[in-house]
Amino acid sequence: MPRINRDRLTAVLMLTPSIILVAVFVYGFIAWTGWTSLTDTTSNTLISGQSANYIGGENYAELFSRALDKRFRADLVNTVFFTIMFIIACLGVGMGLAILLDQKVKGENTFRTIFLFPMALSFVVTGVVWRWLFNPENGINSLPTLIGLPAGTFFWHISDAKAFTFLWQDVPAIIGIIVLGIVVFFALRSWAKQKSMLAALLGALALLTMAWLSFGNPSSLIAIARPEEHSFRPALLALVLAAGWQMSGYTMAMYLAGLRGVSDELREAARVDGATELGVYRHVILPLLAPITLSAMIILGHISLKIFDLVYTMGGGDNLYIDMPGMYMYMLSFRGTDVAKGAGIATIMLVMVAVVIVPYLITQLRSEKSL
To answer: Burial letters for 242-276: b for 16+ Cβ neighbours within 10 Å, e otherwise?
Structure first.
């Protein structure tokens, strides 16, 4: 047997057990979860061994339109706001810490260890500690009393305050306007660079569609009989602070590695050309850190979309002000009996994570092949 065929056979035999395990315990279970979401499976049918009935997309329709499942829709709204604030907080704090450490300060190793230490903790420990700190009576609110000021009155993770109220029926219009706004931006940029007529047409079409979404009646796409209000919950700020405290060290490490990869000659050349220190970061360093920013956003986004343990330890499972889809899935599947609908929520969460990760992976594979 030729040497190359023997090496290939050895590699296949070594990888086969892992491939089988991944196929069964990852993709097999994902497929089973997707199938379960299309049935009327309950905990009773699982215990009794009865076969479930196929009901198609009924579970998904109820999650997005049934009045009793309003909690799931509120969780989706919470997820969007939390993800945006979480990513911004981690990127901002992480980059700030990395820039400070990049100044060759004394004790850099000590500071770097301190900033990275929260990552050594689990979200469960983080949630317990920050729940104590956010206690309205003796947590962070009591700090002003140390200097003679009155104690704070914000209820943090149990605050019932609302902001930016909107109707669930308006969600298609909101999403459409955001997506089309992005299309218009890239179309105009392409037209400005290449004077492309196709880009101009796409931009005009997107603008017309945005006008229809703004003044038309897209709410008819969601079949909910009564207007259903949703809003931003300031209680999510507590969740963002706790999660950002733990994950900012991660983005700090990524940015610090990127900053150390920027040569001093490049910075000095920018200064010689008349760039201020702020201009060096704006026009030289930040563009070079763009791939790191994208990678960090993808990883942080996937963490925020499937977050569960931090929410559970801070809210106890019943705090709807900081509730997330994973929590509702747990309640339906393990505290309740609706296993099929819980599987539907799990499938929706998988799709949300895939929408974030798959385009990034495709881009990375294409860039590797082009090298």
So the answer is: bbbbbbbbbbbbbbbebbeebeeeebeebeeeebe
